[in-house]
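Reopening this one. Same input as before:
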Amino acid sequence: MRGVRFAMGSQGIRPRLRIVGVVILAAWIGLAALFGLLKPIKNGCTMTYMYPTYIPISMTDGATPPGRYGLYLYHEGWRKIDFKEHIDKLSGVPVLFIPGNAGSYKQVRSVAAESDRAYQGGPFERTFYQEASLFRGEGADTESVEYDLPSQYSNRLDWFAVDLEGEHSAMDGRILEEHTEYVVNAIHRILDQYKESHDTREREGAAASSNIPQNVILVGHSMGGFVARAATVHPRLRKSAVQTILTLSSPHQSPPLALQPSLGHYFAKVNREWKKGYEVQTSPGGSYVSEPLLSEVVVVSIAGGYNDYQVRSKLESLDGIVPSSHGFMISSTSMKNVWLSMEHQAILWCNQLVVQVSHTLLSLVDSKTSQPFSGTQKRLWVLTRMLQSALSQSFNGMTPMKVTHELPMLASKGSVSQISTCGLDWRDDALDRDLYIQTSTVTILAMDGRRRWLDIELLGSNGKNHFIFVTNLVPCCGVRLHLWPEKEKSNSNLPVCERVLEVTSKMVFIPAGPAPKQPEPGSQTEQAPPSAVLKLGPKDMHGFRFLTISVAPREAVSGKPPVAVSMAVGQFFNPEEGALEVSSPSMLLSAYWTKELFLKEDHPLAYNLSFAISLGLLPVTLSLKTAGCGIKTFGLSDGETGDLDKDKLCKLRCFPPVALAWDKASGLHVFPNLYSETIVIDSSPALWSSQSSEKSTVMLLVDPHCSYTASVHVSAPAVSGRFVLLYGPQIVGFSFAVTLFTIMRQAHQWEHKQSVPPLLSAVEYNLEMPSPFLPLAAFPLLSSLFFSFLTAQPIPPLASFTVVSLVCYLLANAFISVLIIVSKVVFQTSALIHTTVKSKCQALERSSSLAFLHWFSILASSLVCLKQAIRILKLNTTIVMTLVAVTLVSFVHPALGLFVILSSHALCCHNSMCCIMMASARRKEPVDQKTEAERKTRHTSGRQEALSVDMSEKSFVETQSDIFNHRHGLLILHLLAAMMFVPSLAAWFQRIGTGQSFPWFADSALCVGVIFHGILNSRPESSILRSFPSVLRHQLRPHHIYLLAGYYCFFSGLELAPYKVFYAVGALGYISLSLKISQLNNNDLRLRTKSRIHRR
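Same output, byte for byte:
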C-alpha cells in the first residue's frame, strides 16, 4: 500500500467546519442577493406612446445572405403611406439605431416618435438657471464656440434601424463581428439612399434639398453601442461617414459577460483602434502626417445608473478610450430633466430620457446646412449643454469657465434699470421696501416684492464665510441676488449701481419632488420643495459688503397673500460645522442596530455626510424624521396650538429635505423629498483598478428651522445584490484558481508517495490558516498591489480591497465545494444504480428464462464488423476521442468539444466508483463456511493466502480511489471551462440554419489546449507534466505548474477578465503536448541507438 490515505477524518472536525462555514456564507449572500435583485424597482419613468410604421430598405450590396438581417426606416403616424413615395422624399438628418443583445429593431419607436413630436413642438423654453460648461484642461477650446441653442429646429430626424434577428451579440465574439460588418453596409446604404432620393426629386422637378447628408448619427443600445464604435473604426467604412455616436447603457471597457476569449479579444482590439484613432498620425521618422483619424468623432455614453443590473457604470465609462475633448459619460441620474435611474430596457422607453435625447439630437442640426455641425467642439458643446447639469459641476467643487447667462443688474432706487430679458417688469417701484436681516439665516415664505439686505462682514463672521440659498422661485423672474460693494472701500469712480454684481446666474436647478396639492388658494398644507440652489464661497464674495435677495411682487389672493406658496431659505454657514462622518464599524453594525444622528434646530442648511465605505458597495437607507420645528418661537404655547398635528405644522414650516450623492464614475445622484430613501450610487469600489479614496459623500439640504432625527440602516439584500453584481466576474476567475490549487494539492500528495486526496479534502486543507490559506490568497493580493506601485497605476484602498477580495475567494471555495459535493453524489448514485442493476441482471442471466437473450447477445457480438469496431475503439479510445473533440472545437463550436472530454472524465469517474462499490460489497459478504471444523483446521498458508487476497483487494480499491479523485479534479476544471461557453452555445443554437461561420481561431486554439490537458494527464501515474525539464537547476514539479496557473487565474479575477483563465488552462495543455512530443522523440532516438548497437 502506497502511503496513507489523505482522509478527512484524520484532521478532526475543524476542516469540516471550514467547508460548512464558507458554504453557509455563500448561501446567505446568494439568497439575500436573489431577494434584493428580484425586488420590484420603482424607476419613476413615464411611458412613451407612438404610432409606428416600419419601411423596409433594400440592401443591394450582396454582402449579407438574403433574409439574414434587415434595414428599416421609421415613420410616425397612424395614416397609411406609400413606402416608395416616402423614401423618395427623404431629406432629413439620418440617424441609425442599433439594437443590443437579443434586441429588436422596433425598439427605435420610442425615441423616434418623440423626435417627431419635438421637431413639431419646437425647443424647450429657455430658463435662466446656470448651465453646464466645458472646462479648461479638458482639451476643449470653449472660447471658439459661439453658438446659442436654436429657437426652432431647422430639420427633422430620419430614424433608421437595423434588424439583427434578435441575436445574442453579448455572448459570442463572432456574432458581434458580423453585426459590425452589417452596420457598416447599412451606413453606406443609408447615405446612398439619400443620394438616390435627391436624384429622383431632381428628375421629377421637385424641390430638392441643397445638402445631401455625408454622415450618419449612430445611436446604440447595450451591445449596439459597442457595435457603433466598432463600425466607426472598421477599415471598410467611408471616411467621415460617422461623426456622432450616442450610446444607451452600452459597455465600452469590457463585455458584461467576459466569459468567452473572443469577446474579450474583440473588445480589446476595438479599444486599441480607438486609442490610436485619437493620436496624431506621424511618419516613422516622427514628422507630422495628418490629424488623428477620429478627430471628428464625438461620443456620449449614457448610463442607466444603479438600477441597471446588466451593465454597470464602470463598464460604460469612456476613460482611456475617448479623450474628454471628444466625449464623456453621463448617468441618467445626473442627466438634465431626467434625474432617474432605470433598468437596462427601460432606458429605451423612459419618456423623460427619450424626450431629452430627442431634443439633444435636434439641437445638433445647423440651421445653415440643415445637417449636423461639422465642428467637433460645437457638437460637444451642444451635447454638454443639453445633457449635463451644472449641479454636478457645482457639487463636485468645480468652477465653470464662465457664467453662461449674463443677467442684467438690478439698480438701486432712483436709477434706471438696465434692459431685462425677464418676462416680469422690475421697475423702480417694483420693490415695496427693504428689509435688513440681522440673523445668519433668512427665510422667505411668499413673493412679497421686498429686497432683503445681508451684511456679509457681520453675518459672515466666526468662520461662517460660505453662503447657500435654496428656493423654488424661478431665477430672474422670481428672485434675484446681487453683491454690493462698500462705497468707502472702493477705488472705482463708477457709481454704486454700476459696480453691483448680479449672481442670480449661478443658481443651479435641482429636481424637485412632487409639489403638495393646494385644494384652494391660501390653503397650502405643506412647504414647497426647493428647485434651485446657489452656493457662494469666500472668493465669490471677496470685495463685497452686502448681499441682497430681491423677490418679485405678487398680487394678493382673496385679500391676503397665499401661505407657503413660495419658499426661499438662505444661510451663512461654516462647512466644518455641517460635516458628519459615519465610520466603517457604524455602517456594518447598522445592519442590526440602526445608527441615529440628531440635527438640532438652527443647524447648518447644508450637511456633508461622509461614509467611510462606498455606498456603491454598502447602500444605506437614510431616514429623516422631523423632531421639532420651532413652534414656540412663533409665540404659540402648547395650549394655543390646540389639536394641530406637530408633523403637519413642521411640514408647513420647513421645506422637504434633499440629498445629493456624488460619485466620480457615475456622477450625481439626487434624492428629492427625502424622508426615507435608500441611498445608493453606481460605483465599483474595492477593485484592482479603483482609486485611492472611495469614501462616499452625501450633501443634505435640510431646513435649519426644524430639528431632525436621522437614521442610517444598511440593508442586507441590497448589499448582497450589489456585491454579486460588482464582483461576479471576480468570483468566476477565483473559482478556476481554487480548482487549480486543489489539483495542485493532489499532485503534491502523489509526488510524496501518498494517495491522491479527495477534492473536498484538498479544498479544506487549502483553507487552513495561516498556511496554506495566506500563500494562496494573500500573496497574489500583495503581488497585485506591488505591480500597481511599479507601473504607477492607482493603488486601491488596502482595507476594502483585501476584505472584498478575500470574501470573493471564500465564495469561490464555497461554489467549488458545492460543485464537488453535488457531482460526487451524482456519481455515487449512478454507480449504486449501475451495480444494483448489474447484479440483478447477472442473477437473471443464470436462470433459463433468459437463455435466449444470452444466446442472442453472443450471436450479435460474433459479427465481424461489430467486433472490429469494438476492437478499434478499445485500442484507440483516446485517439478517437481526441480527434472528435478537436474537430468539434475547430469546426463546430468549442463547447461541444469540451463536452466530449467531460464525457470521458465522467465515464472514467463512474467506472472507478462502480469498481470501488463492487469491491467494498465483496469484502462485506460473509465468508462461505461449509463446516465449523473445516474453518478450524485451515492451514496457516491458507490464512496467509486469504490475507494476501484481502491486501490485493485493498490495493485495488485505493488505486480506483486515486483514479477517481484525479479525474474528478480534471472534470471540475473542465466543467468550469465548458460552462464559460454555455452562453455562446445558446447563441449558436439560435443561429442554426442561418449559415454559421467557423468559431474564432483564438477560442478553438485555447479549447484545444484544454482538451490536450485532459487527455495527456488523465491518470496520476502517467501525468506528462512530471517530465517537465529543470529551470535554473530547479526541477519544476506538476504542483508548481498548477500553482502558477492558479495564480494567473487569480490575477484574471482581480482584473475582472475571467476569460483570461483559458490562457492558463490552455497553456497547461500545450505544455503537456510539447512534453509528450519530446518524450516520443527521445524514445525514438533510444530505439534507433539500440538498433545500431545490435547491428554492430
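So the earlier flakiness isn't reproducible anymore. For the record, Residues 798-846 form the longest helix (49 residues).
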